[in-house]
């Protein structure tokens, strides 16, 4: 049985060279990062209204732990971060319904795409039979900020998630962002 996980590969579990490992956290290769601290985000029209508040809470949690500030814009063409719920093969090389696509995946700084598998069961109310949208969003936003996966199971950036599981930022997640951005 495959474990539900993020669609981004782990340097410490594969031969892929997507990440550069440092301590327990990792960065995207080349340590790509945003040059600004104010980032605009948008929701694709396929994002249900009930998914928006938990995703905004995830953005707020990163904002509370970092110098980043996030601002909602309606037009995705003006957004740095674009959040979507998509089905199957959606054209980015990480199709949902396969290990490759995972439950969700995000592309690093300066790309800003965050994709959730629309065919999964998502909730934010503690439903033990669904994936927690706020927690998975928090994880994927870590990728948006430039973090790879962590080896620490309690860290948000750990790549495997259980149904109903909710985590909050861990010291390792915050130390990773601080190391990447040097603040």
For the record, give the distance between the C-alpha atoms at the N and C termini, rounded to a whole number: 41 Å
**N-to-C order of helices and strands:** EEEHEEEEEEHH
Give a short account of the largest sheet.
Answer: 5 strands, mixed
Shape: globular
* Percent range for β-strand residues: 15-25%
CATH level-4 homologous superfamily: Collagenase (Catalytic Domain)
Gyration radius, rounded? 15 Å
Mean pLDDT: 88
Strand order of the largest sheet: 4-3-5-7-6
By helix and strand content, what is the structural category? alpha/beta
Fraction of residues in helix: 10-25%
**Beta-strand segment tally:** 9
Brief descriptors of the model:
183 residues, 20% helix, five-stranded mixed beta sheet, alpha/beta, Collagenase (Catalytic Domain), two-stranded antiparallel sheet, 3 helices
Structural commentary:
- By secondary structure, the protein is of the alpha/beta class.
- It has one domain: 3-Layer(aba) Sandwich (Collagenase (Catalytic Domain)).
- The chain contains 3 helices and 9 strands; from the N terminus they run βββαββββββαα.
- A 5-stranded mixed β-sheet has the order 4-3-5-7-6, covered by helices on one side. The protein has a two-stranded antiparallel sheet with strand order 1-2.
- It starts with 18 loop residues before the first strand and ends with a helix.
- It comes from Penstemon davidsonii.
Helix and strand arrangement:
Blueprint: E1 19-22, E2 25-28, E3 38-43, H1 52-65, E4 69-72, E5 81-86, E6 104-106, E7 113-117, E8 122-123, E9 131-132, H2 133-144, H3 171-181
Parallel strand pairs: 3-4, 3-5, 5-7, 8-9
Antiparallel strand pairs: 1-2, 6-7
Organism: Penstemon davidsonii
InterPro entries: M10A_MMP, MetalloPept_cat_dom_sf, Pept_M10_metallopeptidase, Pept_M10A, Pept_M10A_Zn_BS, Peptidase_Metallo
Protein name: Peptidase metallopeptidase domain-containing protein
């Amino acid at each position: 049985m495959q474990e539900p996980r993020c669609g981004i590969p782990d340097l410490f579990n594969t031969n892929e060279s997507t990440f550069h490992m440092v301590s327990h956290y990792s960065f995207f290769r080349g340590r790509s990062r945003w040059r600004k601290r104010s980032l605009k985000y948008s929701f694709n029209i396929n994002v249900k209204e009930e998914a928006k508040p938990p995703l905004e809470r995830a953005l707020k949690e990163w904002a509370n732990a970092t110098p980043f500030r996030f601002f909602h814009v309606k037009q995705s063409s003006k957004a740095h971060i674009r959040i979507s719920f998509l089905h199957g093969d959606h054209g980015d090389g990480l199709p949902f319904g396969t290990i490759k696509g995972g439950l969700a995946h995000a592309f690093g700084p300066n790309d800003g795409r965050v994709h959730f598998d629309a065919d999964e069961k998502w909730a934010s109310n503690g439903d033990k039979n669904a994936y927690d949208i706020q927690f998975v969003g928090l994880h994927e936003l870590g990728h948006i900020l430039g973090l790879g996966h962590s080896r620490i199971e309690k860290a948000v950036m750990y790549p495997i998630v259980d149904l109903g599981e909710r985590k909050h930022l861990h010291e390792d997640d915050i130390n990773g962002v601080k190391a990447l951005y040097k603040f």
